[in-house]
Amino acid sequence: MRFHQDRVIGARALARMAMVCVALAGVLGVAASDAEAQDKLRVGKAGREAFSFVPVDIGDQLGIFKKHGVAVEISSFSGEARLQQAMAADGIDISLASGVGMAFIVKGSPAKAVAAFAGPPLLFAMVVRNDSDLKSEADLKERTVGVSGVGSVTHWLVNQIALQRGWGLGGIKVVGIGDNGARVAAVKSKGLDAGVVDIASALNFVKAGDGRVLNRFGHIVKDFHLHVMFATDKTIAAKPEAIRGFVKGWFETIAFMRKDKAKTVEIASQVMGTDAALTAGIYDELMAMFADNGKFDPKALAVISKSFVDLKTLPEEPDMTKLYTEVFLPK
Length: 331
What we know:
By secondary structure, this protein is of the alpha/beta class. It folds into 2 domains: 38-120 and 224-297 and 317-322, D-Maltodextrin-Binding Protein, domain 2 (3-Layer(aba) Sandwich); 124-216, 3-Layer(aba) Sandwich (D-Maltodextrin-Binding Protein, domain 2). The chain has 13 helices and 10 strands. The strands form 2 sheets. It has a 5-stranded mixed beta sheet with strand order 2-1-3-10-4, with helices on both faces. Helix 2 crosses helix 11 (261-272) and helix 11 (261-272) packs across helix 12. Residues 1-11 and 17-36 have low confidence and may be disordered.
């Protein structure tokens, strides 16, 4: 009798173990399936500190991209030129850069613009030292201003001041310096008369007591695509659904940011290295520049096309319709 009971108990224990194993296998199978369902995209930002690119970090931390089947690997670069080099070298799949960066496609960059995600250039400000004799834009003629790089959007914006004031191209001397920190350092050391930096760097510069903001660039141009999202030709061919999921996740993140300022500021502060109060101010100033659907505006594209010639990046205006696609935008 005792032997029979032991056999029954042993059989029940084995049955329970088998059920646990089956359940565990199911859980592991779902986890493996979820992992396989995630398409990895390597995303490059043309600057770590810029609020413009924070949505990718927010969407990643909140799991929004994952929800759309995309796992993102985020890298930051000191300017657009290096970002474009990384795309050409197959180091990244998606880049978050500037509208004027579309010129690189004409020059042979293996990529296409897939979404326009920011409009007027609200992001940038020009800073000077406290002891500078520069009081306004009118004083900038023949002065030296630092920008991220030659042919960059910051270069173009400085040129627009010169053109609009009738000084002609070259009316303001432009020097490509690199990232925001390098531009700020050059202004502080008197290597430059002024520097164009993102608003976070500008406000930090002022807060530290090192200088002041000379001007902002929102009035320089209204119809514009300050920032554009690019995908490499290789990624477009191999992972079209991943791109579609990333773009959808990006604009879902923008919608979240508009609704939840507190969480946005919390994450953005960590990414940008700014305190909560400063980040909240940046949020208030810059959320308006973000687009909600990624569509390319013909008027903005016309301005960008002309900028290629103004910057002498291209000898003539290109056919802009060949540089972008809207097939990946949310329907």
